[in-house]
């Protein structure tokens, strides 16, 4: 059973890496670690990513609990459908406009988080780097919301925690590598990654939509959702 939690979550994290590099790459390369020696710099990178995962764990617990409180047959599928459609629309707007599209007033809503990040960026100690990672994990991100939706659909706080932990671990190789070796990535390559990032988010939204529609797509439709029969009958929101 837990393989059904771990594998999709880790794969989602790996697929999300391009999006993470495009959206959070500049921050990862600007971490205030340049004054530190090799081992302490590596420790700082690990603490930063550990902070991100800490936020994901809290989101997993919260959304897993919320999924349990609204455990009504079919409702998780409707949430997956709605979240997938929203993700697709935002991604298409980002692709067509050539810039990262944000929902109106989203910056103002998360203003305290941005202020915390600005404070942490001025710190030169490892605890501040960990706190910066926690703040970064709370920033608005469509793919994090998709992962949180996955935790919600499990309807269990512990499985939600495991799901978000594996999602976070899936993003660590790319993000840690960027912090340690980001200088080796050329400017054209970084620009290409930024252009690819909305396409990754679009693909993730499409996968979430297909998962909610329960069209018996191999692998995608095999992700368990509590209260849903995997033959597509009875609890399908379209029936």
Task: Give your account of this protein's structure.
The chain crosses the membrane at residues 6-33, 45-66, 78-95, 129-154, 160-184, 196-213. This is Sulfite exporter TauE/SafE family protein. InterPro entries: UreH-like_TM_dom. This protein has nine helices and no strands. It has helices spanning 2-29, 38-69, 75-97, 106-109, 111-121, 126-137, 142-154, 157-181, 187-213. Helix 2 (38-69) packs parallel to helix 6, helix 3 packs antiparallel against helix 7 and helix 7 (142-154) packs antiparallel against helix 8. The chain is globular.
How far apart are the termini? 27 Å
Q: How many DSSP H or I helices?
A: 9
The tally of beta strands, per DSSP, is 0
**Approximate shape:** globular
Helix content: over 70%
Mean pLDDT: 77
- Rg measurement, Å: 18 Å
Concise account of the structure shown:
The chain has 239 residues and is mostly helical. It is built from nine helices and no strands. The model is unreliable at 222-239 (pLDDT under 50).
Key features?
239 residues, mainly alpha, 9 helices, 0% strand, globular, disordered C terminus, Sulfite exporter TauE/SafE family protein, UreH-like_TM_dom
């Amino acid at each position: 059973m837990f393989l059904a939690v771990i594998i999709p979550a880790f794969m989602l994290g790996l697929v999300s890496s391009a999006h993470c590099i495009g959206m959070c790459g500049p921050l990862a390369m600007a971490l205030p670690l340049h004054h530190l020696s090799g081992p302490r710099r590596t420790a700082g990178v690990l603490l930063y990513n550990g902070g991100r995962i800490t936020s994901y764990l809290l989101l997993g617990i919260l959304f897993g609990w919320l999924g349990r409180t609204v455990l009504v047959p079919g409702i998780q599928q409707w949430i997956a459908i709605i979240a997938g459609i929203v993700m697709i629309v935002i991604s298409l707007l980002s692709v067509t406009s050539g810039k990262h599209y944000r929902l109106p007033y989203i910056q103002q809503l998360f203003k305290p988080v941005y202020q915390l990040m600005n404070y942490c960026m001025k710190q030169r100690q490892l605890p501040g780097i960990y706190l910066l990672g926690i703040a970064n994990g709370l920033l608005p991100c469509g793919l994090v919301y998709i992962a949180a939706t996955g935790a919600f659909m499990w309807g269990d706080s512990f499985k939600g925690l495991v799901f978000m932990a594996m999602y976070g671990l899936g993003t660590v190789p790319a993000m840690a590598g960027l912090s340690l070796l980001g200088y080796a990535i050329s400017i054209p390559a970084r620009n290409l990654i930024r252009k690819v990032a909305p396409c990754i988010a679009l693909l993730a939204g499409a996968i979430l939509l297909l998962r909610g529609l329960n069209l018996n797509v191999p692998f995608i439709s095999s992700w368990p959702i509590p209260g849903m029969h995997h033959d597509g009958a009875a609890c399908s929101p379209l029936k």
